[in-house]
Write a structure and sequence with these properties.
By secondary structure, this protein is mainly alpha-helical. The protein is built from five helices and two strands, in the order αααβαβα. It is extended and about 65 Å long.
């Protein structure tokens, strides 16, 4: 019965090590993920975000802690066909209000809306921060990371106001 499986595997490993070959891709360390995880204000609208990509990011929430084990957050992926309903209600680059970001042609075409089943409190805020950061790290480490582009300067930042007073989409989380 003994076919020396472990012995053969060890020989293969040593041969690969000696030749400098490696079949493994580099590990995504926390440091590498944090370097890739940035605040973006412009997106490649030519890239179509698929539902499975958003679901993979949402799925990370099954493996993270929840304050007081409440598990009160709910997630709703929003794809390109509904993104126009969310855009009036977001603000990118909050510290740069004069720029009125996102610039036309660089709007995100997908979102993950995070809701809570209870009133906002410090524990919900903790869960929200942990969840959002975990999903960002998942996206940064994903081999299908979403393409992002640097925002262009708008010719006249004082032109056209934003439409932030329209109604919220009726289908919520």
């Amino acid at each position: 019965m003994a076919d020396d499986y472990l012995g053969r595997k060890m020989e293969e490993y040593m041969a690969r090590k000696a030749s400098g070959q490696s079949n493994r891709r580099p590990l995504a360390t926390l440091g590498r993920l944090l370097l890739k995880n940035r605040s973006h204000r412009g997106y490649d609208t030519g890239f179509v975000v698929r539902e499975d990509q958003l679901r993979r990011m949402i799925e990370v929430n099954t493996r993270i802690p929840s304050a007081r084990n409440q598990q009160v957050l709910r997630f709703r992926p929003v794809l390109a066909d509904e993104a126009h309903k969310v855009l009036p209600h977001i603000r990118l680059g909050g510290a740069l209000p004069a720029l009125r970001l996102p610039f036309p042609g660089t709007e995100p075409n997908a979102f993950i809306i995070i809701c809570s089943t209870v009133e906002e409190n410090r524990y919900v805020d903790m869960d929200l921060g942990i969840s959002a950061q975990s999903m960002l790290l998942q996206a940064a480490g994903s081999s299908s990371a979403l393409p992002i582009r640097r925002p262009r300067r708008r010719p006249n930042p004082s032109s056209s106001g934003s439409n932030r007073n329209s109604t919220w989409p009726t289908n919520r989380c």
